[in-house]
Amino acid sequence: MLQVNNLHYTKSRHVILRGLSFKIPSHRTVALLGENGVGKTTLMRLISGLIEPNPHSDIMIDGKMGAKIKANLSYVSTLDWANNYDRVSDIVDYFKMGYPDFNEQRMEELIKFMRIDRTKRIAKLSTGTIEKLLIALTISRDTSVYLLDEPFGGVDVLARKKIMQSLLHWLPEEATVLVSTHYIQEIESLVDDAIILKDGRLLAYESVEKIRKEEGLSLEQYYTQLYIEDNGGRE
C-alpha cells in the first residue's frame, strides 16, 4: 500500500505540489494523469526518495516511512548513470548484484519478449529500446510498489503494445502500481483507478469502473471534462 499525506514540494520558491493526500491499496494499478508540468515526475521522485518533500509531508509504503520505504518500491527512470560502453547484459548484472529481490528469470523472459539484444551497448540503443529496458528492469524486482513514469514516451505503437502486454503479464497481481502517461485511451484497460493532477494539486482520484458506470464516460472524456470544469468552462 502506498499512502501520501499532505505532500508539499517547493523548489526555488516555486510551489510544485500542494498538499497531496491519497492512498493506493495493494492489488491496484493507478494512472497518474495531468498536463506537462503539473508535478507527475516530481511526485514519482518524491515517493522514490530521490528528492525530499517539504516538512510535515508524509509518504508511507506498507506502513513504513523514510529510508525504509526504498526496499519496498521499484523505480527506474533513466540509464544516465550507466557507462555508454556498458552492454544490456552489464546493466542486468548490476541489478542482480544490487537488488536481492531482483527476479532474474522474469528479466530474461522480458528481454526475450521485448526483443532486447542483451549484447548491445547502451549508447547504441534506440529510444524505444531504452524505454523497454527501463520497464523490464523496473518490473523484474519482487517488491510492493512499482512506479512507472511515462513508460510509453518516445516509442511507437507496436512498442507501446509490447510494454502494455508486459505490464499485464509480468507485474505481480498483489502489487501497487502507479503509472504516469499521456496515452489515456490506451492505458484505460490496464488501470483500476486514476489520479488527476492540475496546477500541482489533486483534482480527482476515482475508480475507472465508477467513471464508466456512473458518469457514462471513458477515462479520457472524464479527464477532459474535469479540466474544462476546473477552467471555468474554458478548454
From TrEMBL:
PROSITE patterns in the record: ABC_TRANSPORTER_2
Organism: Weissella paramesenteroides ATCC 33313
Source superkingdom: Bacteria
Matches recorded under InterPro entries: AAA+_ATPase (IPR003593), ABC_transporter-like_ATP-bd (IPR003439), P-loop_NTPase (IPR027417)
SUPFAM superfamilies attached to this UniProt entry: P-loop containing nucleoside triphosphate hydrolases
Positions of the ABC transporter domain: 2-224
Full protein name: ABC transporter, ATP-binding protein
One annotated GO molecular function: ATP hydrolysis activity
Keywords: ATP-binding, Nucleotide-binding
Keyword ATP-binding: yes
